[in-house]
Write a structure and sequence with these properties.
Number of strands of chain A: 14
Oligomer: homodimer
Family (chains A, B): Belongs to the group II decarboxylase family.
Radius of gyration of chain A: 26 Å
Number of domains of chain A: 3
CATH architecture of the largest domain in chain A: 3-Layer(aba) Sandwich
Number of helices of chain A: 14
Cofactor (chains A, B): pyridoxal 5'-phosphate
Organism (chains A, B): Chloebia gouldiae
Pfam families (chains A, B): Pyridoxal_deC
CATH class of the largest domain in chain A: Alpha Beta
Strand content of chain A: 5-15%
GO molecular function (chains A, B): carboxy-lyase activity; pyridoxal phosphate binding
Strand order of the largest sheet of chain A: 3-12-11-7-6-4-5
CATH topology of the largest domain in chain A: Aspartate Aminotransferase, domain 2
Shape of chain A: globular
Order of helices and strands of chain A: HEEHHHHHEHHEHEHEHEEEEEEHHEEH
Structural class of chain A: alpha/beta
CATH superfamily of the largest domain in chain A: Type I PLP-dependent aspartate aminotransferase-like (Major domain)
Chain lengths: 499, 499
């Protein structure tokens, strides 16, 4: 700690105000030294992270096992602080031993690569350190969020709507579930679920695990998520949904929600939205679409190597992305060429969309969008805290959107998406989506050509599922031993990247 | 968009791979231009935000009403992207019209000021863009989170425990509520609340509004939060709690949780934790302590002016903080001098603690800490997603803590607290807590001396509640008109800061 100022020296100054042993009006911190520290650290960040982002010769990660890494890093927080040089060294070590998700060879879940615009937006956000609950503290960020939500709604195809950015797609799905429940029976907000019939919701058996988490957290119960059978491509079978809704009704339970998945975790399957919308309409069920894309990412399909296999369930799945930088529309919505995959999306009551994955807006950037424009979101979530949401302010308090959230402090996540969109334009985003799908197509052709690679199925989207069968297993018979050995391949591969 | 490369030019190159009209192996982005953009933007951030952070002569905010600000900012996202110079100008405008929460005169809710170490940690986080679910993608950040949680547990006074960082104190309170419910009846995770007796929880009538939000979200219902009367200082009255628990039992409902507040929003009151712990023990109730500090902040009490009044409920409340920089322990826990306020905290089953407010770790940095060390957190929250949490990895998968969370992608928020703690040391943090409370004491003495200021009550913590009565109202009789006019004072004051 270099900011300490000698107490004796301060006390000798005129007008020193001493209260409870503390000199109140003395400088407690040297802001110039603080600024110098930030400058020095920024230099390290630029050199070690940003400039190395597209350098394939750099390591993805200086891998260490947990116990070893604990020894290397000086994790202990002590009574006495460290000098700036030591703290800067800590910063270097943190970077050194962290996984570079920007790296062209980062093939783990969900995202990879760097977007310079969203990165700058995030730096601005951290420097300003705002919280978006009221217009008076976040004027710019609230207007930006409004503009981004409006634009996303336009792409979904709704005439109007509402929305909010949340800390993650899983949380967005929870929001939708709670909103659907509120619409079904507003009294639940005050009375709770006790004594009510069993609420039941429907999602495909390939849906994301956040459906179960949400059902558990919201007091609905994981058993009341009825999983609908999927076809051989991983898409929900509408006839099976119809059957399950009828089964729930016969049981005397209360069906209230169907969650369709647009881009499943493993196969990248799109549920047939239009047909599901028909069933929802018929039975009066809330129709939510989870288009929070998931899966692994392949940075450079042009350099396909055995090492790129990664295990997920029983097969490897890789989302193809551009060589240097990827940014998909959080879905195919952005691409005029590929948005047909989401045919029927405009009939949804709510949509979860994560620009932080394919669009590279940075963790976390996740929106829940709602078709309703009668204030349902606010009615469902508001608690009307008097200390934050006074109604007698000197501006239009409808801009104080914080009460639509389960959070109090909330980050301005829409801003990073906005700045990126401004810089690239819709056309720039669209080009990336098209490029990503072209890369997936290329990968498929490569897999077909190369020995030891076995395509699981023709992808309709960007998830390419295949097996890499190493030479030692190519002559082996299909059976438990074969599959056990094959599964080990993906684990071994990870090590290759970090060597 | 300056990164576009002429397609014709690329096609003429050897080995161009064209798929679906996309050239796959051409550069789609000039990373040097991207890096230059980041450098230019960082310069703006340093000059316009960081270096101006402690300059009282700068404006807190270039205030504009919503409709006017929309006109000024170019919010529309278009088909075509903007050039770097235009995007840099947008960054300048965003900064210009945003509220500077770092500013010495920022007196709105929850926090103010700048901490250079946590800021650097946040920059590192944004550049690396990690997600903390598995050790393989976030080795450093998961170990850091473990170390920070261990240290926080030490300060609470537990021998062991568990914990997780969440997107906000409200979410931490939800986690605790769900955890208490799971402990009360693990079957709820699968079966839900339907058909069960009415669950009831207890919190003081001065508790944070997140209790109601949580009860609503979790399907418990806001009416099943029994609000316990407080004394004249805003503290929960234990005898009233006892009565309400008995009332709930008589009604045939199922009491399961008591939420005590350590530092209420307005008065900064500390519920009597030790006595509440007795009642919880007697009745077998989960004991949660919400020590997510709230209220407004006073940057510079040495320059007390009428303008510092801000309305909350019926009185003004201001948390005193150091002149240049404030950082309290997220509570008084860090200070040997003041931790007596939290006497009995070690008896809690769970604690919500936000280092992002008083400790200035940056939005958001919020921990839920749990005394249980038998894996309750994981049992309660896990969904065991196969694509993320494989059990056959090549390292100890107990470090894959993501399944303790309701989130999938999760930010490494513990890191900013850790780097700050490393730099300042516990002593540095402690000095700030002591300083903040000394400032509060000074403010109280000033209020007593100055005409037109009326102290509401002697504070026990850092919330100083008082009225500023302007000259025009000083001779007026107490009555509805007087209060109506007095309430308007706080709204008018806000304008002063932004002029």
């Amino acid at each position: 700690m270099e900011f300490g100022v000698c107490k004796q020296e301060m006390l000798q100054k005129k007008n020193a105000v001493l209260v409870d042993g503390v000199i109140l009006n003395g400088p407690i911190m040297d802001s110039k030294a603080g600024e110098k520290f930030v400058e020095d650290a920024c230099k390290i960040i630029m050199e070690e992270v940003v400039q190395k982002a597209d350098d394939v010769t750099e390591k993805v990660c200086e891998w260490q096992a947990p116990e070893k890494l604990k020894q290397i890093l000086d994790l202990e927080m002590r009574d006495t602080g460290e000098c700036h040089q030591k703290v800067l060294q800590l910063c270097r070590d943190v970077i050194k031993y962290s996984v570079k998700t920007n790296h062209p060879r980062f093939f783990n879940q969900l995202y990879a690569g760097i977007d310079y615009y969203s990165l700058v937006a995030r730096f601005i956000t951290e420097a300003l350190n705002p919280s978006v609950y009221t217009y008076e503290v976040s004027p710019v960020f609230l207007l930006v969020e409004e503009a981004v939500i409006k634009k996303m709604i336009e792409f979904i195809g709704w005439e109007e709507g509402d929305g909010i950015f949340n800390p993650g797609g899983s949380v967005s799905n929870m929001y939708a579930m709670n909103l659907a429940r509120y619409k079904f029976c507003p009294e639940i907000k005050e009375k709770g679920l006790s004594g009510l019939p069993r609420l039941v919701l429907f999602a495909s058996e390939e849906c994301h695990y956040s459906m179960k988490k949400a059902a558990s957290f919201l007091g609905i119960g994981t058993e009341n998520v009825y999983f609908i059978k999927t076809d051989e491509r991983g898409k929900m079978i509408p006839e099976e949904l119809e059957k399950q809704v009828q089964r729930a009704r016969k049981e005397g339970s209360a069906p209230f929600l169907v969650c369709a998945t647009a881009g499943t975790t493993v196969l990248g399957a799109f549920d047939p939205l239009d047909k599901i919308a028909d069933i929802c309409e018929k039975h009066g069920l809330w129709f939510h679409v989870d288009m929070v894309e998931r899966g692994m990412w392949l940075e450079s399909v042009l350099e396909l190597r055995p090492a790129v296999t990664l295990k997920a369930k029983k097969y490897s799945t890789i989302k193809a992305k551009s060589k240097i930088q990827a940014s998909w529309g959080g879905s195919a919505l952005i691409s005029r060429k590929h948005r047909r995959l989401l045919h029927g999306i405009h009939r949804a009551d709510s949509v979860a969309w994560n620009p932080h994955k394919m669009l590279l807006a940075g963790i976390q950037c996740c929106a829940l969008l709602v078709k309703d424009n009668t204030g349902l979101l606010k009615k469902c979530y508001s608690a009307e805290a008097a200390y934050l949401f006074q109604q007698d302010k000197f501006y239009d308090v409808s801009y104080d959107t914080g009460d639509k959230s389960i959070q109090c402090s909330r980050r301005p996540d829409a801003f990073k998406f906005w700045l990126m969109w401004k810089a690239l334009g819709t056309t720039g985003l669209e080009e990336r989506v098209n490029r990503a799908l072209a890369l997936a197509r290329y990968l498929v052709e490569e897999i077909k050509k190369r020995e030891g690679f076995q395509l699981l199925l023709e992808p309709e989207y960007a998830n390419v599922c295949f097996w890499y069968i190493p030479p030692s297993l190519r002559k082996m018979e299909d059976g438990p031993e074969f599959w056990q050995k094959l599964h080990q391949v993906s684990v071994m591969c990870y090590l290759r990247f970090t060597d």
